[in-house]
Fold this sequence. Notes:
Layout: E1 2-3, H1 5-12, H2 16-25, E2 31-33, E3 36-40, H3 41-51, H4 71-78, E4 80-84, H5 89-99, H6 108-121, E5 125-127, E6 130-131, E7 147-157, E8 167-174, H7 178-191, H8 195-202, H9 207-219
Parallel strand pairs: 4-7, 6-8
Antiparallel strand pairs: 1-3, 2-3, 5-6, 7-8
Helix pairs in contact: 1-2, 3-7, 4-9, 5-6, 8-9
Amino acid sequence: MQLSVKDAAGVLSVSEKTIYRWIKQGTIPCCKISDEYRFNRAELLEWATSQGIRVSPEIFSGEVGSSLPSLAEALGAGGVHYRVAGSDRSSVLKAAVALLDLPVDVDRQFLFEVLLAREDMGSTGIGDGIAIPHVRNPVVLHVTRPAVALLFLENAIDFAAVDGKPVHTLFTLISPSVRVHLHLLSRLGIVLRDEAVKSALGERASEEELMRAFSGAEAALCPSRPVAAGGPASAPGPGSPAGRG
């Protein structure tokens, strides 16, 4: 879906002036069509998440009754994993892939290589010690259901995160389609701002406590749609390029 400057400003909760400033700085992904700037929704939301820019909760309006999975459901599928070993980005990603509950026909080595290549394109470290490794084109995996695995690392590692801080917590996101991928990534980017979620992550709380915190934060996005307790959520910190407008 192609968005206008006005649409992009609404999605990112900033002014159009800020959007134009980011365009001039070359930091925001966009293209120019007939002298007008256009933004790919998928690229924009992924960029916002990686930069720690809050996405407007209004993008979730109208979701009631939709078939999109909740973040809680995806987290329930991916699970919470503690004391995950690894001395660098590569070994941690390999450990993450090994922990994922994937169909037997999914090539884990291929998934690992895709995740590593994605990091080489730009770190998924969103700041505050959190990274969200994910496949840019989720369809290539041919998975039937989405999963968000939460991994607490035994040792913090350098992930070239946006704020320069080492990463101690990973959310590995696997989706069956681009639509589901964007839905979960966007929600994760918002829910990680919730104080209860941040507290639970900081304390490395029990899986039950984490699920409760994530489910509560997600339910607040769409009060009319109940969220099953069983998954995490998202939200990067405020480290954005050039500030808000």
